[in-house]
Amino acid sequence: MATPSSHRSDQLFRPAYHFPNDPTEAERLDEQHGVLKELMEGRLYFAPISPISSSGTPFKVLDIATGTGLWAIEFGDQFPEANIIGTDLSPIQPTLVPPNVRFFIEDSYVSPPRRLM
Q1: Cβ neighbourhood burial of 62 (10 Å; 0-12, 13-18, 19+)
Q2: CA angle, residues 80, 38, 113, in degrees to nearest 5
Q3: Which residue has the higher pLDDT, 21 or 115?
Q4: Span 20-73, pLDDT tens digits
């Protein structure tokens, strides 16, 4: 169910976030990441990707609703030549991250991340 948004004049409704935004929830998100990664036999993705495009430029990765940013950080470690951007409503990501990983506070429900445009 959508609820009125009081902080954005360009948006009438926003979906409710049904979980708390606290350290316990951040821990749950990290545990969920670990469980999913174990189910995927240690893989972070299934897409057939290559770290360098056919034109020789590094590829870009967008992690919308990154949460704690753990997936983006691990992906950045695995592909240091890639550019990873993680976006979320809440600034709960760590500040010590690989140099190719950046986090931004964005509401992707309202519009695409401005950093990619």
Answers
A1: middle
A2: 45
A3: 21
A4: 889 999 999 999 999 999 999 999 999 887 766 666 667 889 999 999 999 999
User: Which pLDDT score, from 0 to 100, does residue 96 have?
Assistant: 94
Q: Mention every residue, 6+ apart, whose C-beta is less than 8 A from residue 100.
A: 76, 79, 80, 81, 82, 83, 84
63 contacts 41 by C-beta, under 8 angstroms = no
Instruction: For the chain, give every domain's residue range.
Output: 20-116
d(CA 73, CA 97): 6
CATH class of 20-116: alpha beta
Which long-range contacts link 1-7 to residues 24+ away (Cβ below 8 Å)? none
Q: Is 69 exposed, middle or buried (0-12, 13-18, 19+ CB in 10 A)?
A: buried
